[in-house]
Specification:
about 0% strand; mainly alpha
Length: about 150
């Protein structure tokens, strides 16, 4: 199950890939859900703590400075919408099990939009819980149909 825990913590697979993996390994759906939600939440606090340091460090490298400036310009345009939907918007962004909408992207978006860490953490937590439930139900049904 360490492989599943690691897969759920990685930015590419997150729990969207780890839950089906756990079910294919024969894990009970509840076990897969709990392990993958926990694993998916592991990188949240480090991301939220390290991203400001990376942003500060990036200002000394021209390519990254331009990249961060571009991202800031893009997110400033979305600031009004995010403030409109706030907690629910960030939660739903993470909860929708689509590519590039996981907790890694959610934590990054929260940073660039200037959302307070504590507020963002609980929105990300709820989003991961919901995404885990959706993926577990979908993957469990698909695997049951496959067999």
């Amino acid at each position: 199950m360490f492989t599943v825990l690691l897969a759920s913590a990685l930015p590419i697979s997150e729990l969207r890939g780890a839950i089906p993996l756990a079910l294919c390994y024969g894990a009970h759906p509840l076990e897969a859900y709990v392990i993958c939600v926990f694993g998916n939440l592991l990188p949240v606090i480090p991301i939220m703590m390290v991203l400001p340091l990376i942003a500060k460090w990036a200002q000394y490298l021209p390519f990254f400075e331009k990249l961060f400036a571009w991202i800031n310009r893009r997110t400033e345009k979305q600031q009004k919408e995010v403030n409109k939907y706030g907690f629910i918007g960030l939660t739903l962004f993470v909860a929708v099990p689509l590519p590039m909408t996981g907790v890694w992207t959610g934590a990054t978006v929260a940073y660039f939009l200037g959302i307070r860490k504590r507020y963002a953490f609980f929105a990300l937590l709820l989003g991961v819980i919901l995404a885990g439930a959706l993926v577990t139900l979908a993957a469990g049904g698909f695997i049951r149909l496959w067999r």
